[in-house]
Amino acid sequence: MRRTILLLSTTMALVLVLVVGGVAASQQRHEQSTSSPQSATSNKSGSDVSIQSTTVKASFTSGSGADFLGVKVSDHGNLLSFESPAGQEAATPEAEGYALCSSTGSITKRHDTGAVESGFGPPKFNQPNPGKFPLTVTRNTTDGHFQLNHFFNKTAATEKDVTVTMTVKNISNFSLFDIVLSRSGDFDVGPSSSDQGARTGDSAWLWDEPFTDNPPGGLMLKALTFGTSHSASIETRSDWATIGTRQSCTPFFTATPTARGDFAMRVVYNLPGTLSPGQSKTVKFEYGRM
Question: Which of 106, 108, 124, 181 is most buried, judging by how many CB atoms fall within 10 Å of its CB?
């Protein structure tokens, strides 16, 4: 009898281990399937930076052929795709985003330009229709100083552009000053990475020349909040990606118009004065076909 009871107890313990182990494995698989794909790399200083998810959070298409526009935005607020006309992609994967600087406007850990990011917490969303615009992406900085909102809205079908409204809010309990907000990206207009670049005080653009390139085309990054101090720049891809100005708000200016080459473009806003606790400032950027 005692032997039968011992055998029964051993069997029940084994069953319990298998059940608990199965539940844990199922839970682990669920967590892996619902989390955004993330990995890590190291920047030149040796500190870890996370590679953002390339998950498309919102997309929009209109028209066809020469009248086509396709836009895709990531769950971190990065422009993943700008296709116009059909078949002519200008965005480079994991190569567009933003940087937020304060005090000096120099190198900062608050940046996300696709392949590298640092200084921002996980995103939160406001999206009435899943997968579609309008989309609001909200991220707080890990130092507890700022909240950064990105608002993307669907453009009119006749307009081949996308506007992102960005709001910087002071969520700390002290005043912040010398705040700089940058949006930049390494774009390749047409089938190769070789483009020409130019800029004005309000916009930067990259293009492929008619009768020289096939097909010709162009993409412009423009400041739309004219009352706030701003500038536009063209940078070599080497400066932006390899030297790493993508992680800062301060570009290495390239004289324009450029010869043919591989370039990035940027618009920077210098937010005026001091931002007191709870105060915010809003500016607009636009990417458009040209």
Answer: 181
Give per-residue pLDDT as tens, 218-274.
999 999 999 999 999 999 999 999 989 999 998 999 999 999 999 999 999 999 889
pTM of the predicted protein model:
0.80
Structure tokens at 197: 């670049």
Compute φ and ψ for 38, nearest 5 degrees: -135, 150
Cα–Cα distance for residue pair 146/138, rounded to 1 Å = 11
Q: Where are the domains of the chain?
A: 44-289
Residue 278 CA to its chain's centroid (Å):
25
Residues 67, 158: Cα–Cα separation, whole Å: 8
**CA 249/CA 244 separation, integer angstroms:** 11
> What's domain 44-289's architecture?
Distorted Sandwich (2.70)
